[in-house]
Amino acid sequence: MNFATIKDSLLQKVKPGSFLRSVLTIASGTVIAQAIAVLVSPIITRLFTPEDMGVLASFTAIVSILGTVATGCYDHAIVLPDTDKESNAVAFASLSFSVIFSFVITLVSIIFFKPLTTALKLNDMAASWFYLLGLFVLLTGFELVLNRVAIRNRHFKVLASTQVTQQISSNSIKIAFGFLKSGSIGLFLGTFFGLISRVIRLGVSEFKIIFSKDNRPAIQDVKKTAVRYKKFPLVSSWSGLLNSSSVQLPVILFASLFSPAVAGFYSLSHRILSLPMSLIGQSVGNVFLERAAKAKDNNAELGRITLDIYSKLILIGSIIMSFVVFYGDLLFPFVFGEQWLEAGKYAQWMAIWMIFQLASSPISTVFIVAEKQGLILGRNLLLFLSRISFILFIPFFDNVLIIIIIYSLLSGLVYLILSIQTLRFVGIMFHKIFISLFKYCILIFILQFVLFLLLNYFIRRL
Questions:
Q1: Tens digits of per-residue pLDDT, 211-248?
Q2: Of 20, 21, 154, 265, which residue is most buried, by most CB within 10 angstroms?
């Protein structure tokens, strides 16, 4: 194949409207948005205390958990109908559910304001933001609906620019208020206006489609579609809630059981380590899903592809995270400021579980290909229970770092078990799995440990 043929093939793949062009468009927005978040983090961590960031982290964790089911998961069905009118009916059902749900949340947050803010250790101005919990959930629900409508209408440039707009607006406000020494109020305002900017940017593009005269559904149509897609709130919402809670609930528990500062240290460590891991995992997961779907009727090929992807992800994760394991307590204070030394110590142990999470999550899409929804729900339940089981050890240890170590090792063990289950599901023998782990994980850590000892030796000699 000559250069001209290769060039023509690439141009054909990235032409407007092609699948690759769509993926690259959304991915570019994600990369730029995450790059902005990483670049401004050293500034923000020097303007706000761990307590400030811990208060915000626990609040936004609650919003994230509730936001997962804010639409009753009806937003997942927006892309399914054949006609725009039916799709708009689903969108109306989603928006209606969001309004009702957020109203209930507002009532609960007002009635139980005192016990909830006390449990979360929210004081003064930070506590007053709890009254707006329902509004945050409502905006999150609207954003989910608008996001799905944009996907249905292939407005990928809008989705990409929206991510960038949100990061710029949110972080600009945080930095501005940080210089004014505003405390947690600056973080709340930045998060709030970042969310509003995302809803407005999507709304300008998508509301005219939802409310178009030609495809405007009647109330009866909305009721009909709500019944038609009732499995989403009745079934999918539970799986989504478990998945979101397994990620966000630890932040809330660290804040309430220890202190907002501990939640702040954990939140920063998790966010920084998750950024590259999630980007790699999502990209590989999308490619693997497509390849696994093609090979679903060929067990040998499906097993080969799955083990190959798993081995590569273990290798990538081990190379990146081994540096954090050995040098996290030096890197975090250097990058984010001396007050974040504790976050670096947390990150050294959290990096271990991130390796196995990176390797396990993308290949788990094989269960989607096999239509094993029950197994997916069971795996999410196991992950959720393992994530909150660390509270059983709190009465026996008064050192937070020990609890973080236990939590990280438990999470890593569960992800390892889940990955072994996935590989066994596609027919990979145990000895092949452990050979892969030794070659692509253990050997990397042995080499990194030798490098660590050599560096320490030469530093002491200087």
A1: 777 777 888 888 888 888 887 888 778 877 887 888 88
A2: 265
Answer yes or no: is pLDDT of 391 > 70: yes
- Please enumerate, as own/partner, the contacts of 173-180 that have beta carbons within 8 Å and a separation of 24 or more: 174/40, 174/44, 174/47, 174/48, 175/40, 175/43, 175/44, 175/47, 178/43, 178/44, 178/47, 178/48, 179/47
Q: How many alpha carbons lie under 13 Å from residue 238 in its C-beta half-sphere? A: 11
- Report the candidate in 115, 153, 136 with the shortest Cα–Cα distance to residue 60: 136
Backbone φ and ψ of 18, nearest 5°: -75, 160
Q: What percent of the chain has pLDDT over 90?
A: 31
How many C-beta atoms surround the C-beta of residue 3 within 10 A?
Answer: 7
How does pLDDT run across 9-65, given as a tens digit for each residue? 434 544 555 555 665 676 677 778 888 888 899 999 999 999 889 888 888 999 999
pLDDT tens column, 68-78: 889 988 887 88
Is pTM beyond 0.85? Reply is no
Rg (CA), the chain: 23
Give CA–CA dist 39/36, Å, rounded: 5
Rounded Cα distance, 195 and 160, in Å: 15
